């Protein structure tokens, strides 16, 4: 194949032709597999995943081929290869993580780096008005470790009622009691005070810790919560709703990605072959038998095929897994035909897409200095050395997120004790990394329009502030994912369809009122907390602090917290929107499963890293059972 100047394969709009000579040649040039990219200046800082035992190239056949070494794929590969007689190839498009991605406080930086798939939501006229080109940015992780290498490390599991509802829909094996076992299996709880909790795992590989550095603002948040009736609790315990200190996937102050937990310790297993920088382009499915038997992938600009004796498993995440299914002929018939893809199975791939959105613009100014995190003050050599040596200090903060509170707003009509909003207390706000020397990484990571930002927050940039991000847990609005074309290197079209239901807007406004009430309590008032009167171009005709103003504000800074789910929705066989069954097998196709956050069928009150890891754990047991 020809290669363009960016190192990307130039390919026509149809799948590229297989030339046997090319494949043979590729498979005999061993350095293509063992050599890292020689132009990669940061290679020295990265983890390495050579093939074990000095192997120069991968086998042509494995028991399992897993696509995507992300949160789910990493744990799945590790568990399947516990049996030394089982072989696994783990294909990953991204590179291994590095010393830099270990630094929790710079999490916002990674939303626009080589570790990111730079996806955008399709333009929606009434949201994301304050973003560059009025479009919301949907970055995903592209790394060994997947999105857990670029995320904010927040550890949450979802409420019992939510998982029980998923099970009640006909998804056997997915009740809260079932999933709790798998959450606990992965977890190594390192949080003082929770040692004897019956809900915390002790001997897993995934370290969960409190963040070692906190500002006084988190104690104000928790105290304000108690005043308004929210107890301070372990918010991941099933008993009640409340507020708590942030629980994070970190180990001694450093990021604990899924790769660090599950792949790094097992990289010398002879039966686990991990191939970074290898992009799957298609699942090979026999159109007659409808059985998946391998994967086509591209590495070092060359095309390869690998066979799977038992199963192919897609763990490429909520955007790439449905895309790969559709490219392979599994998806909505008419849609595939429109793109010239031969249809093997007609399934509603991409028909359901939920996301968790937030409004990051509710900023409270404070009248004391040295309260909140201000990047330009914290970025000192002393602090960096402190973190390198001891894993604490301001560099250990997970992007300044410090606490979480679950609330059920007055507009909720949920009959159960299920929250409709999560509040994330920040030891600062969107303005904390501004100023002349500031990185502005948070606003840039969200692709906020700088002019709109400066107009709204310029007067308080780089000052002491507090905010809580309200995260809409159970949106009624449903999005959709489609192919743009049949080129595996194109990004799909993603429609968030945000705030298209009025109840979603009402829930946001109710949450904003609740955050205002928290800020009005004594713990915040002793710091002189005052709401900042941000002015947005689109909201000029509204009165500040009216419901109309807040709706407009939310539609201006409509930011995703990156929890897209349900694009390969799990469901029983009578669910017209289901793509996989409760054992994650793709309907109508043999030996093909999807194992990642794309299968979560309904919204849960959780950031989706821990759920994805839980899904990988659970899938490993289901797969082992199938083949035992
Ligand atoms: C900026 C950001 C912040 C977040 N913060 C949090 C947080 O604080 N807490 C939390 O719980 N969740 C958070 N999330 C969400 C969470 O991290 C993800 O939902 C979760 O990691 C998804 O796991 P997954 O296994 O479904 O997919 P991923 O972890 O995304 O893994 C998919 C993998 O497949 C690879 N891949 C894709 N296509 C191909 C292909 N064709 N060939 C080979 N490999 C391929 C990708 O490169 C990736 O490594 C955040 C997400 C983002 C983007």
Automatic annotation (TrEMBL):
PROSITE patterns from the UniProt entry: GMC_OXRED_1, GMC_OXRED_2
Location of the Glucose-methanol-choline oxidoreductase N-terminal domain: 141-164, 317-331
Cofactors required: FAD
Example of a GO MF term: oxidoreductase activity, acting on CH-OH group of donors
Keywords tagged on the record: FAD, Flavoprotein, Signal
Regions annotated as coiled coil: none
Active site: 563, 607
InterPro entries linked: FAD/NAD-bd_sf (IPR036188), GMC_OxRdtase (IPR012132), GMC_OxRdtase_N (IPR000172), GMC_OxRtase_C (IPR007867)
Pfam families per record: GMC_oxred_C, GMC_oxred_N
Binding site for FAD: 147
Protein family: Belongs to the GMC oxidoreductase family.
Protein name, UniProt field: Glucose dehydrogenase [FAD, quinone]-like
Source taxonomy: Eukaryota, Metazoa, Ecdysozoa, Arthropoda, Hexapoda
Underlying gene: LOC113514953
